[in-house]
Specification:
It is a single chain. This protein is of the alpha+beta class and about 350 residues long. About 65% of the residues lie in helices and about 10% in strands. The chain is built from eight helices and six strands, in the order ααααααααββββββ. α2 packs antiparallel against α4 and α6 crosses α7. It is elongated, with a radius of gyration of 39 Å. The termini are far apart.
């Protein structure tokens, strides 16, 4: 027998939920249908972003260079301290051996009470000579003990210093690794953006760079700046001999360079030692705040955090290692935010 009961109606809440979900699905579908596909960045936009990434990579590079320099310095200091500790331990062992010999001799000559020795002595003069020697040995023993104590304190201090420097070295190595990863990350991101360009766009960017480089070279050649002389002249000539060498972060030559690697290498060829990083090089001589007063061979510092450096080439141009993907070349000083020059 068929049932005549009315079918159960959905509850009002269930209807509301289903209606809302359906409306949301329709809205999402409509948005997806109407949404424009993400536009591919233009060549200029890619160039702007890549330049920004290269700047960030160079900032990290100079910090990497600083950490690497600190690591090398700490390693030398630790090696020196460890050598000193080894020699000091040898000295301490000799002092202890000497003290042992003194103690043994004193025991042999002083085993009988001195007053009894005098009473039994058949030759009082001989005893008095021995007693004088005994007093002398005691004085030497006291002096030996003092030397041992001083040497022990000295070794303890050196070992403590070595321990502190080893901890500093471990932290510096960690920082070095982090900065290396940061540089590599920025460079990889920049390369990914460059790979998104078409062959035609890449060729256009390369042509722009070549035109700018030729223009800067011509301005240097036709410039009326006084020729560099002395140490600055020798450093500038050395840097000129490396035009065309590739930029490699952390490199100091002789086949590749980063910005401060080039300048420190160039001045080293002139017999002048300057610090490794651009920030340290900024304090390596007399600062020149007016571009009109710059002389060929002066260091030129760029950006507010002083993370880039080159050599003044005359006529408003700088000779430098710009960034990854480029080579040592001339460039207009106005292409970067000039801070000041440094005369070594």
């Amino acid at each position: 027998m068929a049932s005549h009961r009315r079918p159960k109606q959905p509850s009002r809440a269930r209807v509301t939920v289903l209606t809302t979900a359906a409306a949301a699905a329709v809205a999402i579908s409509a948005q997806a249908a109407n949404a424009a596909p993400s536009a591919k960045p233009s060549k200029d936009e890619v160039k702007s972003k890549v330049d920004e990434l290269y700047q960030q990579a160079e900032q990290a590079t100079e910090k990497y260079n600083g950490a690497k320099e600190k690591q090398e310095k700490l390693q030398k200091e630790i090696s020196t301290i460890q050598d000193n500790v080894a020699r000091g331990q040898q000295d301490l062992n000799k002092l202890r051996d000497g003290l042992g010999s003194l103690a043994a001799g004193q025991y042999r000559t002083g085993g009988i009470d001195p007053s009894l020795q005098l009473f039994l002595s058949s030759d009082p003069d001989d005893y008095l000579d021995k007693a004088s020697t005994l007093d002398q040995l005691s004085g030497q023993q006291v002096e030996a003990l003092k030397k041992i104590q001083d040497k022990q304190r000295e070794l303890a201090q050196e070992r403590s210093e070595a321990s502190a420097k080893l901890k500093d070295l471990a932290a510096t190595r960690t920082e070095l690794g982090n900065k290396k990863k940061e540089v590599q990350g920025k460079l990889a991101e920049a390369q990914r953006l460059l790979n998104s360009l078409t062959a035609k766009e890449k060729a256009a960017l390369a042509a722009e760079q070549q035109r700018a480089s030729r223009a800067s070279t011509e301005r240097v050649q036709m410039g009326n700046a006084a020729p560099a002389s002395g140490r600055a002249g020798a450093a500038f000539s050395a840097a000129q001999s490396k035009i065309g060498s590739p930029y490699v972060y952390g490199a100091t030559g002789p086949s590749s360079y980063d910005c401060s690697g080039l300048t420190s290498w160039a001045y080293a060829q002139a017999g002048v030692s300057i610090p490794r990083t651009s920030q340290a090089q900024a304090n390596a001589g007399t600062r020149i705040y007016s571009q009109s007063q710059l002389q060929v061979g002066d260091l030129v510092i760029f950006y507010g955090d002083l993370h880039h450096v080159g050599l003044y080439a005359g006529n408003g141009q700088v000779l430098h290692a710009p960034r990854t993907g480029t080579v040592v070349r001339y460039e207009s000083i106005g292409n970067m935010p000039f801070q000041f020059g440094v005369r070594i």
